[in-house]
Amino acid sequence: MSGLRKLARCALGSMFVSALLSGAQEVAPGIVNYSEGQVVLDGKALAADAARTAVVAPGQVLQTEKGRAEVLLTPGVFLRMGESSTVKMEAVSGTDVRLELVRGEALVEVNRVARNRRLDLIVKGADARLDRSGVYRFNASEPAIAVYCGRVRVEDDRHGTTLRPGQELLLNGTNAPRPRKFARAETDAMYAWSKSRAGYASQVSEWTGENLLGLDGQPKYGNGWYWSPWYKSWAFVPEKGYVLSPFGYGFYAPHAPHYLPPVFADFRK
Length: 269
Fold this sequence. Notes:
With 269 residues, the chain is of the alpha+beta class. The protein has a domain at 31-185: Jelly Rolls (Sandwich), CATH 2.60.120.1440. Helices cover 16% and strands 39% of the residues. It has a 15-stranded mixed sheet that branches. Strands 16-17 form a two-stranded antiparallel ribbon. A hairpin with a 4-residue loop joins strand 3 (61-72) and strand 4. Mean pLDDT is 82; it is low at 1-25 and 263-269.
């Protein structure tokens, strides 16, 4: 009987790994990984279980009313929208991903930068190129871009500005806007929700990564998004080692030693 049980466990494990790998296809930037409350994609209300299939395609808009949403961009990059916000997907190609925050606010968690792609978020004509890990906040209602940690270059038709941790740029139409300090309150509702989602994403990633090794112990994965049928969520799994989230969580590759604890990001640097 023990032999039969072992075979059954192996069969189930093989089926689960196959299910994961079947979801490991290239995920188009713009997939809606999570939504709560009133969320509308291109004029149609999103169902709560639409995470795997709902994608904001080029030219389409995603709107939140009394709700919030999490959108996946390139592997390791999460865009989280607050209430009463609108994001438009401008372009998606093999080398370029561009979005516009039309209304409200969004927070972007960048864990890993895709070197072969350019990722830009536009607010009121100002173009922020996200090419460095960090936590960035965008506001279209009271136009501003702020950096919790990381660094971002913001450009428009007239000038360019580099923002560092603890700085924000007011997009008020002046000829030469300058960065100013802002209060990085971690108790802010938008930040707190994003940090909670970041912790959940790390948990999903760890559990998913542990199941991405084949039964022969050989790796059968690559850097990217993987669908977890148990969590009903996409998981970011790095190809090797581990990636430190700017929120202080870890994303581990299946072979990475988990005894290396993540070190929390220092927003003062």
